[in-house]
Amino acid sequence: KEPRPCQSSQGSLGDTEATTAPESGEERDGDSQRWHRLFPPLGSPAARRRYKDEFAAGLRRYRELCAQLDAPGQRLAQLEQQLEQLPEDSAQYQALAEEYNRLKDLKRSPEYQDKKRESQTLRDKLFHIKRMVSDYDKL
Protein backbone atom coordinates (compact mmCIF):
# COMPACT_ATOMS: atom_id res chain seq x y z
CA LYS A 1 0.00 0.00 0.00
CA GLU A 2 1.36 3.40 -0.96
CA PRO A 3 2.00 5.94 1.81
CA ARG A 4 -0.24 8.97 1.51
CA PRO A 5 1.26 12.32 2.40
CA CYS A 6 0.45 13.54 5.88
CA GLN A 7 -2.05 16.37 5.68
CA SER A 8 0.31 18.63 7.57
CA SER A 9 2.98 18.30 4.90
CA GLN A 10 0.53 19.73 2.37
CA GLY A 11 -0.58 22.71 4.44
CA SER A 12 -4.23 23.42 5.08
CA LEU A 13 -6.81 25.91 3.96
CA GLY A 14 -6.43 29.07 5.93
CA ASP A 15 -2.82 28.23 6.77
CA THR A 16 -0.95 31.12 5.22
CA GLU A 17 2.54 30.29 6.40
CA ALA A 18 4.80 28.06 4.35
CA THR A 19 5.11 24.56 5.76
CA THR A 20 8.68 23.88 4.64
CA ALA A 21 11.08 25.29 2.11
CA PRO A 22 10.94 23.37 -1.15
CA GLU A 23 13.86 21.03 -1.62
CA SER A 24 16.41 21.93 -4.22
CA GLY A 25 17.09 19.52 -7.07
CA GLU A 26 20.46 18.75 -5.46
CA GLU A 27 18.81 17.74 -2.17
CA ARG A 28 16.38 15.43 -3.96
CA ASP A 29 19.20 13.89 -6.01
CA GLY A 30 21.25 13.37 -2.83
CA ASP A 31 18.34 11.65 -1.11
CA SER A 32 17.71 9.50 -4.16
CA GLN A 33 21.37 8.43 -4.28
CA ARG A 34 21.30 7.73 -0.54
CA TRP A 35 18.24 5.50 -0.84
CA HIS A 36 19.75 3.77 -3.86
CA ARG A 37 22.93 3.06 -1.86
CA LEU A 38 20.98 1.77 1.14
CA PHE A 39 18.40 -0.14 -0.91
CA PRO A 40 19.96 -1.15 -4.25
CA PRO A 41 18.02 -3.13 -6.86
CA LEU A 42 16.95 -6.53 -5.59
CA GLY A 43 18.62 -9.74 -6.65
CA SER A 44 16.93 -12.49 -4.67
CA PRO A 45 13.68 -13.52 -3.00
CA ALA A 46 15.38 -13.25 0.40
CA ALA A 47 16.38 -9.64 -0.29
CA ARG A 48 12.81 -8.94 -1.44
CA ARG A 49 11.50 -10.26 1.90
CA ARG A 50 13.93 -8.03 3.80
CA TYR A 51 12.77 -4.99 1.81
CA LYS A 52 9.13 -5.89 2.42
CA ASP A 53 9.84 -6.19 6.17
CA GLU A 54 11.65 -2.83 6.14
CA PHE A 55 8.73 -1.31 4.24
CA ALA A 56 6.18 -2.66 6.75
CA ALA A 57 8.13 -1.31 9.74
CA GLY A 58 8.63 2.05 8.06
CA LEU A 59 4.97 2.28 7.10
CA ARG A 60 3.92 1.69 10.73
CA ARG A 61 6.19 4.52 11.90
CA TYR A 62 5.05 6.75 9.04
CA ARG A 63 1.39 6.26 10.00
CA GLU A 64 2.19 7.08 13.64
CA LEU A 65 3.89 10.30 12.56
CA CYS A 66 1.01 11.24 10.27
CA ALA A 67 -1.48 10.78 13.09
CA GLN A 68 0.64 13.01 15.35
CA LEU A 69 1.11 15.64 12.63
CA ASP A 70 -2.45 15.65 11.30
CA ALA A 71 -4.28 15.96 14.63
CA PRO A 72 -3.26 19.59 15.35
CA GLY A 73 -4.18 20.66 11.80
CA GLN A 74 -7.58 19.03 12.03
CA ARG A 75 -8.23 20.68 15.39
CA LEU A 76 -7.13 24.05 13.98
CA ALA A 77 -9.68 23.70 11.17
CA GLN A 78 -12.41 22.94 13.72
CA LEU A 79 -11.40 25.92 15.83
CA GLU A 80 -11.43 28.24 12.80
CA GLN A 81 -15.02 27.24 12.06
CA GLN A 82 -16.05 27.72 15.68
CA LEU A 83 -14.30 31.08 15.97
CA GLU A 84 -16.12 32.40 12.90
CA GLN A 85 -19.44 31.76 14.64
CA LEU A 86 -18.66 33.56 17.90
CA PRO A 87 -18.44 37.24 18.84
CA GLU A 88 -14.81 38.20 19.42
CA ASP A 89 -15.52 39.69 22.83
CA SER A 90 -17.06 36.51 24.25
CA ALA A 91 -15.30 34.36 26.85
CA GLN A 92 -15.80 31.27 24.68
CA TYR A 93 -14.11 33.02 21.73
CA GLN A 94 -11.15 33.96 23.92
CA ALA A 95 -10.75 30.39 25.19
CA LEU A 96 -10.90 28.93 21.68
CA ALA A 97 -8.51 31.62 20.38
CA GLU A 98 -6.00 30.65 23.09
CA GLU A 99 -6.19 27.00 22.05
CA TYR A 100 -5.88 28.02 18.39
CA ASN A 101 -2.75 30.07 19.11
CA ARG A 102 -1.26 27.26 21.22
CA LEU A 103 -1.74 24.81 18.32
CA LYS A 104 -0.22 27.28 15.83
CA ASP A 105 2.80 27.58 18.14
CA LEU A 106 2.97 23.79 18.41
CA LYS A 107 3.12 23.48 14.62
CA ARG A 108 6.07 25.91 14.59
CA SER A 109 7.92 24.07 17.37
CA PRO A 110 11.23 22.33 16.63
CA GLU A 111 9.78 18.98 17.76
CA TYR A 112 6.86 19.24 15.35
CA GLN A 113 9.15 20.34 12.51
CA ASP A 114 11.49 17.40 13.26
CA LYS A 115 8.56 14.98 13.02
CA LYS A 116 7.52 16.60 9.77
CA ARG A 117 11.00 16.15 8.30
CA GLU A 118 11.12 12.57 9.57
CA SER A 119 7.78 11.81 7.93
CA GLN A 120 8.94 13.22 4.58
CA THR A 121 12.23 11.29 4.75
CA LEU A 122 10.36 8.12 5.65
CA ARG A 123 7.88 8.68 2.83
CA ASP A 124 10.75 9.05 0.33
CA LYS A 125 12.37 5.87 1.69
CA LEU A 126 9.10 3.93 1.43
CA PHE A 127 8.53 5.05 -2.16
CA HIS A 128 12.07 3.97 -3.06
CA ILE A 129 11.67 0.54 -1.43
CA LYS A 130 8.31 0.07 -3.12
CA ARG A 131 9.90 0.94 -6.48
CA MET A 132 12.75 -1.54 -5.93
CA VAL A 133 10.30 -4.35 -5.04
CA SER A 134 8.08 -3.48 -7.99
CA ASP A 135 11.05 -3.45 -10.39
CA TYR A 136 12.17 -6.85 -9.03
CA ASP A 137 8.67 -8.27 -9.43
CA LYS A 138 8.61 -7.21 -13.10
CA LEU A 139 11.69 -9.31 -13.86
Automatic annotation (TrEMBL):
A Gene Ontology BP annotation from the UniProt entry: positive regulation of transcription elongation by RNA polymerase II
Organism: Copsychus sechellarum
Name of protein: OCLN protein
Lineage, broadest ranks: Eukaryota, Metazoa, Chordata, Craniata, Vertebrata
Bias type Polar residues, positions: 1-22
Compositionally biased residues, Basic and acidic residues: 25-34
Family: Belongs to the ELL/occludin family.
GO CC terms of this entry: transcription elongation factor complex
InterPro entries: ELL/occludin, Occludin_ELL
Molecular function as annotated in GO: cis-regulatory region sequence-specific DNA binding
